[in-house]
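Sequence in, structure out.
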Amino acid sequence: MWRQPKAVWAVAFASVVAFMGIGLVDPILKPIADNLNASPSQVSLLFTSYMAVMGVAMLVTGVVASRIGPKRTLLLGLVVIIAGAGLAGMSENVTEIVGWRALWGLGNALFIATALATIVNSARGSVAQAIILYEAALGLGIAVGPLVGGVLGSISWRGPFFGVSALMAFAVVVTAFLLPSTPPAERATTLADPFRALRHRGLLGVAVTALLYNFGFFTLLAFTPFPLDMSAHEIGLIFFGWGIALAFTSVVVAPRLQHRFGTVPTLLVNLLAMTATLVVMAIGTENKAVLATCVVVAGLFIGINNTLITETVMKAAPVERGVASAAYSFVRFSGAALAPWLAGVLGERVNVHAPYWVGAAAVLMAAGVLALSRSHLSGIDADEELDELSEATAISVGSDS
């Protein structure tokens, strides 16, 4: 799995940097609120605008990549991220930051979607191995992001934004020089293709499962820094532990559990474990040690879920993988965009326990939806070699986070 062409490693490196942007902001949510006199629900819009635009933009990534080619789409996404992050760092109020985070989300959609497709298309071995490599990049980026965000955020809340811009500029150079030119797809993707793909019940079931699961995930990610009430550096260290746990299970544990128990049974137990973790956080919200421990433990379950859900999407519907992935990401990200904002509102107007109870209920519902969809996912555990894929199933875009 680790013997891959330079192009794969170039995109994987750029993916690490891109995924750093997700967790990089987490340690500075409270400092932003304190410095700019903003409420938790206002600051949580940094996640909402980012996720909402990313979800809608997933419908466009296929259209763009199929016309200008994956490499140009990757580079375009990186440049947009550089602009969005840099301008967010120069903002003077929360509204401006929220707006530039939306631009950042557009860039992330263009990059992340095409990155998975490029790795799957260029990698040697099976689909599962290519996805594990992609998840390794995701896990490493998510793990390092909060740590870097905590270090830079302890200097200034603007630091992480400028840090992303600098790292992305380096990623542009690496991608431009190491990734060969990629031609446009033989068949241009249309905006209607992802919606047609959702007619397949297996794909729709996985997409709704991911939407509900991400509701709980982003509740934890966006709201927890407020009841923790720690410094940016301390929160960065906690979420660094979360990211390490995520990276370990996504690469090492998930494939072994899948091989032994199967994809759907593993996901069902994993979702129930994630539900239980959020329940513990709801009960022990006022205990910082409980919250910090649960954040790290949740990373174990999130890593397993990310790897297995991504692979399931790649196999769930008899359509081009890029189209299936765009449809899935549209549902997942658009719906999950509500969670950070709602968590902030519930924390302000009800109590600090309410966001976690709602998140736990959403993840429990995700397990129910997956259980109802399992009859349409009977073939997903069949191994599929990348070099045996036909031209008809070649992809030009894909996604995950």
